[in-house]
Design a protein that fits this description.
- The chain is α/β, with parallel strands linked by helices and 329 residues long.
- The chain is built from 13 helices and 8 strands.
- An 8-stranded parallel sheet has the order 7-6-5-4-3-2-1-8.
- Helix 4 packs across helix 12, helix 5 runs parallel beside helix 6 and helix 7 packs parallel to helix 9.
- The longest helix has 18 residues.
- One of its GO terms (cellular component) is cytoplasm.
Length: 329
């Protein structure tokens, strides 16, 4: 990290100490050109890739999937089966890569951990009163600690949008900082790395404007987010290309200012291989190949994986497998 970046990071770290300083910084960020962002996203969405490049993109997208079930009817058997699919998405083809993570509710974490232990597939758990974010802080932190203790190595927290939209930025900042601390430290004595990576869900469909998306992205990163995530998947408007573009520009600018790289996770509404490839093109064109890795970009999706598997089979065999060839999730 350069001396300039180190100085900038030190200066930015002081912002959370003052509501006034946070407000001044966040509202001083450049405004988002709505027309420009939507046109840019639409333009990138027209790019086409073929043959070998498409096959590589499909395998990369599979490795980036957070295979997710967040339903009240989830059972130990269901999440164990999902974890098994995460390890071997296509049982008939051992060359098919595993997914990036399995994402479940905290109560389901122990059952998934039994299947994934030592596999290299991450175990993510939603926390902090998902999906509303409306609960006392001590309950949110207990939720987080319980998931980590049960085996989660990634926590998907949701911000309190009511506080953010009311302009109580310091409250949101402090909750993210506290949740990051609740993720624990597996190696605190030597390197202080977080025991579980923290993905901060902005619920962009409720933030109303691209300017708010940019501000929420920066607020989450300033507070220590390892990833910023678009959505819970529980509101009508989830991930969109323009919103993800704004978030990608934010992580790019944040790394330029601080030297710290933060990941991005669009979630909700991404269902087809064509959709996934549009996002991968956007990542490459906006932030570059450093982010084209499951450590830095993920898809929050459940139905996407099956379409990726269908397209992969078509490329390798010349025949569509059909939607009932793979298990439904």
């Amino acid at each position: 990290m350069t001396a300039t970046a180190t100085s900038a990071r030190s200066d930015l770290s002081e912002l959370g100490r003052s509501e006034t300083a946070l407000r001044t910084f966040l509202h001083g960020l450049p405004g988002v050109d709505q027309v420009g962002a939507e046109q840019r996203a639409a333009q990138l969405g027209t790019r086409s890739i073929k043959t070998t490049a498409k096959a590589e993109a499909i395998d990369l997208a599979i490795r980036m999937v957070d295979l997710t079930t967040l339903e009240g009817a989830d059972t130990p058997g269901k999440v164990r089966a999902l974890a098994a699919k995460a390890l071997r998405p296509d049982p008939a083809d051992p060359s098919c890569p595993h997914v990036g993570a399995v994402c479940v509710y905290p109560s389901m974490v122990p059952y998934v951990a039994e299947v994934l232990r030592g596999s290299g597939v991450h175990l993510a758990s939603v926390a902090t009163s998902f999906p509303s974010g409306q609960a006392p802080l001590e309950i949110k932190l207990a939720d987080t600690r319980a998931a980590v203790e049960a085996g989660a190595d990634e926590i998907d927290m949701v911000i309190n949008r009511g506080a953010f939209l009311a302009g109580r930025y310091a409250e949101v900042y402090d909750e993210i900082v506290a949740t990051k601390e609740a993720c624990g430290s597996a190696d605190a004595g030597r390197q202080g790395r977080p025991r579980a990576h923290l993905k901060v869900i902005l619920e962009t469909g409720e933030l109303a404007t691209y300017d708010n998306v940019r501000r929420a992205s920066w607020l989450a990163m300033l507070a220590g987010a390892d990833f910023i995530k678009t959505s819970t998947g529980k509101v009508p408007v989830a991930a969109t290309l323009p919103v993800t573009l704004v978030m990608l520009e934010a992580v790019r600018d944040f790394r330029a200012a601080t030297g710290r790289q933060v990941g991005v996770k669009p979630a909700g509404g991404i269902k087809t291989t064509k959709d996934a490839i549009k996002y991968l093109v956007m990542v490459n064109e906006t932030v570059g190949p450093d982010w084209l890795h499951p450590d830095w970009f993920r898809f929050g999706a459940s139905s996407l994986l099956n379409d990726l598997l269908m397209q992969r089979t078509k490329l390798t065999t010349g025949v569509y497998a059909g939607p009932d060839y793979f298990t439904l999730d």
